[in-house]
TrEMBL record:
Domain Exoribonuclease Xrn1 D2/D3: residue ranges: 721-811, 830-906
InterPro entries assigned to the protein according to its UniProt record, in alphabetical order: 5_3_exoribonuclease (IPR027073), XRN1_D1_sf (IPR047007), XRN1_D2_D3 (IPR041106), Xrn1_helical (IPR041412), Xrn1_N (IPR004859)
Organism from which the protein derives: Salarias fasciatus
CDD domains from the UniProt entry: PIN_XRN1-2-like
Signal sequence, start to end: none
Chain ranges of the Xrn1 helical domain: 274-352, 375-579
Family to which the UniProt record says this protein belongs: Belongs to the 5'-3' exonuclease family.
This protein's GO CC annotations: nucleus
Source organism phylogeny: Eukaryota, Metazoa, Chordata, Craniata, Vertebrata
GO biological process, one term: nuclear-transcribed mRNA catabolic process
Keywords: Exonuclease, Hydrolase, Nuclease
Alphabetized GO MF terms: 5'-3' RNA exonuclease activity; RNA binding
Domain Xrn1 N-terminal: 1-227
Coiled-coil intervals, chain numbering: none
Descriptive protein name: 5'-3' exoribonuclease 1
Amino acid sequence: MGVPKFYRWISERYPCLSEVVKEHQIPEFDNLYLDMNGIIHQCSHPNDEDVHFRISEEKIFADIFHYLEVLFRIIKPRKVFFMAVDGVAPRAKMNQQRGRRFRSAKEAEDKIKKALDKGEVLPTEARFDSNCITPGTDFMARLQEQLKYFVHNKLSTDKLWQNVRIYLSGHETPGEGEHKIMEFIRSENAKPDHDPNTRHCLYGLDADLVMLGLTSHEPNFSLLREEVRFGGKKSQKRITAPEETTFHLLHLSLMREYIDYEFAELKNQIGSDYDLERIIDDWILMGFLVGNDFIPHLPHLHINHDALPLLYKTYISVLPSLGGYLNENGHLNLRNFEKYLEKLSEFDREHFSEVFVDLKWFESKVGNKYLNEAAGSNDEVAKKRLNENNLSLTVTEGKPAVADDEEEEDDIFETEFRQYKRTYYMTKMGVDVVSDEFLASQAKCYVEGIQWILHYYYHGVQSWSWYYPHHYAPFLSDIRNISGLTLTFDLGKPFMPFQQLLAVLPAASMHLMTSERSPIIEYYPLDFKTDLNGKQQEWEAVVLIPFIDERCLLAAMEPCNNKLTKEEKSRNRHTECAVYSYDPETDFTYSSALPKLFPDIVHCHVRFSLEEPPGVQQLYNRPSSPPPTKITCLSDKEEKEWVKDVQGITEHYLKRKGIVINETAVVLYGQLLTGRKYVPKANGVVELEKQWAKQVLPFAYQTVVKDIKAFYSSLTCFKSLDELFPPTTSVFMVGNPYYGAMGEVQDSQDVLKDGRVRVVFNVPHEPQLESLIQNQHKYCVKYNPGYILASRLGITSYLVSRFSGSIFIGRGSKKNPCGEQKANVAPLFFKLVFDTVSRNSHDDVFYEDDIWPGEDQNGAEKVAEITSWLKGHPVSSISRTSCDLQVLDAVIVERIEELVEKAKVTDTHVKTPT
C-alpha cells in the first residue's frame, strides 16, 4: 500500500508527471521490473464488493500469465525482465500486514452476513481468500510452480523473450517485492561494467515506489501503473483485462525536475551548496513523516490536509541555517533533523490554537470531557486518569484572573496544551503517567524508526526483527534532545514462511487455530476495534490488535516443527532468486503441473541458475524531453488565428499542466511523431522513416526543446530486406487478402532486388459470407414507417408514436390527482385509452378516473388488466435497443451459424505462397 493518498497528491500538484502509454510513443527500456503482488491481487479478487464472485485457481493462473505477456509486450525490455513476488517481510512491515489482513477478513465476514440477511443465495463454492497471498501458503507454492512453467514456456517459444535475462524472485526469497528489485538495481550498479545509461521501468501499484525509484538516483527511471480514477464509486468493478486497461508512465526524471522547482528559492539562499541529489534525499525523508507501512503518521499531519506543503515550507526556512542536509545517503543527520523538527513543532501549537477557542467554549458546557474528544477518544478511563493525576484545566488557582494579562494567557495556553498532549498519550497509548522518561523513549523510538526506514530504502534491511512498537506516533513538540542518540540495529534473520503466516493471518483465515488453550491465543482476537485517528476513510483506520511477542510465537511453534510433512517443509524454507536464459543447445521436456490446462513443453531450451545479489548505491543526473515533432511552418502576429491559438496554448498549459509559459511571441505549427516503419528502396535496401500525424498542432516556441541528441540503438539495426526478413521469420498479414494470417518468410534472394519478399501464409479456412452479405435484403424483416401504419389503421401518426412508447397513467383524476400519488407506467393498447389520448394529445399524464369515469369502474383494476395482457404478448419479450443501432435479424444469424458449422468440417488451414 505504501503511503495512502500520496500518488493522488503528486498527480494533482505535478500534473505533467504521468503520460498515457501509447504504443507508438513508448520509450525504449533495457530493464523491466514487476512488483508481482499487485498483479496477483488484481487477477484473483478483482471485485471484493461482490460476495457472489467466484474464480478457480486455473483461471487465476491463466489471467496472471496473460497480464505478464501484455506488460512484456508493452515495454519490450531489451536486457532484463525481473519478476518479484513478496517474500517474508521484515518484522516492521508484518505489523501493518497483520492489521490489514485482520481488517479484510472482518470486512469479508460482514459483507457475507449482510448478503445473507437480505436473503441472497450465495454460491456453494468457497470464495477466494485474498489472505492466502502470503508466503508459505499452498496457493503461493502452486503459483510459484506455474510461474516457473510460464518462464520456461515463453523462453522456449517466444523469440521476443529469448534475448532477455529473466529473474524470478518468488515468495520463498525473503523481502518485499519492490525492495528485492531495488536490491538488484544496487547490485547491478556496483558492477564494473555497469552502463550508467541503463533505462529502467518498474511496474507496481504502491505509492512509495516514487520514493524508492528516486533513491536510486538513476537518470532513466520510469514507473508503469494502471490508470487511477479518483472519486469513483467503491462498488464500481475494476477492469481486469489488460487490453482494456489504460496504463500510465510516470517519469522520475520529470519528478526530479519538479522537486528542483519546488525548492528553487533555496538556490538564492545557499548558493553553490545547493545540491539537487541531496535535496531529493531530504524530500524522501520528509515523505516518511506523514506515515507509511512501517511507522504511523505524526499527529494531525495528513496529506489531504496539506501536510506535505507544510513540510516543504518548513524545510526551505530551516535549511540555510543548518550547514548541511538531513539525509546523508540513508544516514540521518540527527543534529540537523532535530533543528528541522524543532521548527516543524510549531505546527502542534498552531493546530491546538485553532481549536483552542472552541474547546474553551465546550469546556464551559461539559467540563473536562472535551479533552477526550480533542484527543480523538471517548474513553472514560482517560477521564478517570486525568482526575487521579489532578490534570484539571483550572490551573490558575490562587491567582487573580486578569483578561488583559497576555503572559498569564500564554501560561494557560501552554498548560492546557501540555494537558491536551497528555490526554492523547493516555487514551491512545494507555499510559498512567506521562513522564519525561516516557516522552524521551517515544522520541527515541520514533527517530529510530525513521533511521530504520532510511536504511531500508537506501541500503536494504538493517534489522529483520526491529519494529515500531506503538499504533501511534508522538507529537512533534515531544521529539526533542535527539542529537546525542546512538542508533544501532541487530541484523537478526528473517522469519521462516510458516512463522510469518502465524504472525499475520487472522483466525478467520487460519482454520487450524481453534484451540483456546494455545499460548498465543490472545494475539488473535475475533473482534477488535479500529481508530480513524484523524483519517476519513474506514480503510485508513488504525487496527487496534496486540503486537505479537516474537519469542512467544517461536516458542509456541517449536513443538510443531518436527511434525511437518515433506511437502510442508518444502514450503517452509528460503531460496535464492532464480535466473533463466535461452540456450538453443539445451533441449529437454519440461513437465507441466497442470497438463490439462498447460501442456508439457516438449522442447525446452532454458538454462537455469540461482543468484542472490548484494546492494550498493550510485548517483547520476539527466534531464527530460518531450516527444519529437516535425516543424511544418512558422506563424507571426499577422495571422488571423494566431491570437486564438496563443490563448488556447496558454490556457492548456496553465489549467491542464500547471505550467505558466509567460508571453508567447512565436507559435510553431507541427505534426506529432506517431511511429517509424521500414520502407523498401531500390536494390533491396530499406530505410527507417518517421511517420507523422496528419493533424497540424500549434506549439509555443518557448516550450519546444531543440537539438535533442536522441539515441535509438534498436532502430538502426536493419539496412536491407534480407536483414529485416531473414528466412523462417514469422510475420503477420495486415492487408488484403488473408488479413491476420500468420506466415513464414522463405528464401527470397531472387526477388530481393525488386523490393519483394517471398512468404508462405498459413491461411485458416473461413466461412464465405460474401454471398450472404450481398443477399441479406432477402432475409431481412421488412419494416414500415410509422405514417404508413397510421394510414392503414386510420389514426394519426401522433397516436402511433405515443402507443409505441409509454403512456403515464396516474391515480385519481386531473381535477383531483391526490389519491395515493402513485403512477403506473406501461405502454397500453385498449380502445378507451386510444380515445382519451387522441382527444387530449397535448397532455403528458393521463388519470384513471378520466379514462374510466364511472363510479362502478375500477381504474386500478383496468390498468392491471391491460398491463397483464401486455406482459403476455410476444412483443414484451423483445429486447430494447437504441434506434441508431444496426442489428442482424434472427434469420441472418441462423444463416451465419450454418456457414460457420460448414467451415468447421472442412480443411482448417491452407498454405498460400505470396
